[in-house]
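Bug #2210: token dump truncated for Zinc finger with UFM1-specific peptidase domain protein?
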Amino acid sequence: MECPVCGALLPLDERSNLHVDAHFAGGSHSADSYSNHELLDGDNSHGGSEGAHGTSSSDSYGRRGYARAGSGVAGRGMSGGWDIDSGASGSGSAAAAAAAAMAAMEASDAAMARRLQREEDARLAAREAEQLREMYGLTGVSSDQQLQRALDNAVERGSMGVADVYEIQRLKRSANRIGYDDGLSRTPGLAPALQAWYSKQRFTVSEDSITNVLWCRPPADQFSSHLEDRGWGCGYRNLQMLLSSMCREPAFLQLVFNNVPQVPSVRKLQQLIEDAWSAGFDPVGRDQLGSRLVNTRKWIGTTEVFALLSFLRVRCRVYDFRRPTGPGGTHLALFEAVKSYYRGRDTECAFPLYLQHEGHSRTVVGMEMRRNGDNRLLLFDPAWRPATVSGWCRKPSNALSSVRCRLTDLRQPEYQLLCVTGTLAGDEDWHRAKSMRGALMRVPPTEK
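Reproduced locally. Full output below:
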């Protein structure tokens, strides 16, 4: 581009702005005073111009605008000496040309900034999309491949021997073939150990003392994510916890388990969800997950659990807590729903509750009631390691800090709670459950 003041040929970058600044620097500075601050290559005289290229001082303007009201500036170009003052009549055309040039450069810079921002936004969006695909198991890596990688890494670290690897592989193949859990991540004794601990305590009559503990019935086993499903299998493991309680109830043992008190494996649960999709349950979820789950690392949530249980003729209810309902952004209504479920089923089985939030799920196995109303949920978590849970079975008091959940501990904006309420005896109810009609309760209710 050409300098609007002296006509010198300028490069198309930031140096052109600084060259023009040298002509319009404030106070007593002139273009001559910038001759020692080369902005281009040292031997570049710009076609015979003075080469007066200055760095901006606190009074220079550059892209921040040229003239302040009432301030006089002076400079000298190729044509000889000249003065610019706020009242000088001869300065109008030069100042206008300079302003126009600067406006053009600013517009070009703004357009480039917008383009660069769009490109950066696109890169961030692509990166986030890939992270989500990885998080939800949509990258094409199978659960079998994840297992093999985990075993290879364990051998390299020395934490597992070759014989251990062969034994795990044998158990996994057997579980996939017969459809029952391999038992590697199952800890059956935690719930009975906790119940026994609470029954032996002599609680005080202080304001925050425990008055009662509501437990799921029959008790549930703890299931932890294992090598092949670590990072994505929490939904399946919580479903296994629920089923471990249901298979101890005679009516459900016959209906759901064909009188075989064995909890299905993760692979079998994936197949059952696909079977439920094929029967017409949860068509939206089926489309979102590409109609395939078996041997994938795709996450499941409340709707998939509901579809599987309904397909097996288990009646469920889903509470959708769409926003906090208590003081301080707490989910008071969720606590009330848990209390109502367990208190309302004194003479019936009261199974564990499936608790879902964004990114994770857990299982409610009971509720600790306190005199002052500051109650605690009692939760099992698939993220716990089996070795840790086994230690808690021997000394259940060590588990309390992990099992107990206060109202203020539920910090997510939304939660879903699934509870089993009975069986779907008739075909009409079974077909109605395909769309969750009548089974979904939004809290607070949808405004009409």
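Output looks complete on our side. The chain is about 40% helix and 15% strand. Marking as cannot-reproduce; reopen if the truncation happens again.
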